[in-house]
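OP here, attaching both records as promised.
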Amino acid sequence: MFKFLKDVSREMRKVTWPRGSELVSYTITVIVTVAFVALFFTVVDLGITQILNNMPFLNN
């Protein structure tokens, strides 16, 4: 267990962390992408719901 933690510590020192400006840029990119995908699937879901609601054999 201690060898594993020592190896993890050694590897973490090799990591190149993003600078502040890169972090902000990546964060904005992720938020915009998630918002776009959420909007896309909302529109698709509403479209499929409308199609299924307008099928006469599905309405009771």
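Record two, same layout:
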Amino acid sequence: MSPSRFAALIGAALWAAPSFAEPPQLSLPIDCTLGQTCFIEDYVDADPGPGQHDYTCGLKSRDDHRGTDITLPSFDAMESGVAVLAAAPGRVAALRDGMADIAVTDDTRDTIRGRECGNAVRLDHGGGWQTLYCHMKNGSLTVREGQSVAAGDPLGLVGLSGLTNNPHIHLTVLKDGEIIDPFRPDGARCGAAPDNGLWKSALDYTPTGLFTAGFSTAVPTLDDVQSGAARVSQSTPDQPLVLYGHVFHAEPKDTLTLIATGPGGEVFSRTVTLIDPQPQLFRAYGRRSPDGGWPAGQYRGYVTLKRGDTLIAARHADITVSR
């Protein structure tokens, strides 16, 4: 998001807050356990140009990404109700509610222009420091403007509002209106962080992740996966259903699980162990259409990447089968 698109929620603080001589020390802004019930998908973009990289020079960012995305592994997890928490003590400076929890598409992107953060809360921590919490669930906000909060107090629930297509909380840290990477607050472009940054406790980092997941109607080639040509969003009952996941920097014995469900329940489930992974790879699994064809309706796939029992990444894909 560009700075102007944050303006409505990042402007000057509306209420006084205690002034800290030092930056606030942050706790996890979501009620989950990293590596078990959530994971960090994207970090602040440390590349000032048109490319992107995270604070370690790794791949886990997007061009001009201005926060830290902590992601739930499924929509079911979101529906169960996962609290967004104040990362540090402060005062509610601004908030927005009332935006629907709808995954953004090319057709709906213009309707949220200027409100990409979705339902959100901005906290003022004093001394020019603020935190912004984006993509919260419609109607879930539990705080009001001017209210004092302690670290760990609930602000609302993780949702799907604004510029997002998966359930996560986007945390932006600001100092005097400028974006600060909580992992590298010194502003260095990239490299191994020397300490915990602004976090009370160090948050583990792995360079491994998922570029994407998608449905196709045949096992695709790597070139088509990389270019996006493999992705199919509409199909017919007589076509195979194939789910793929595109992985980067996997390690030997990482596991990739591919699960697809549809109107009739589970379509397939497959776990693959990556024996000799390359810097990037994909794996695919699917089924031919049954007698009479697939039932018409919506199908969803989840691709989950784990290292032992640790959740590293998850992506979903959707396809519509029409008669």
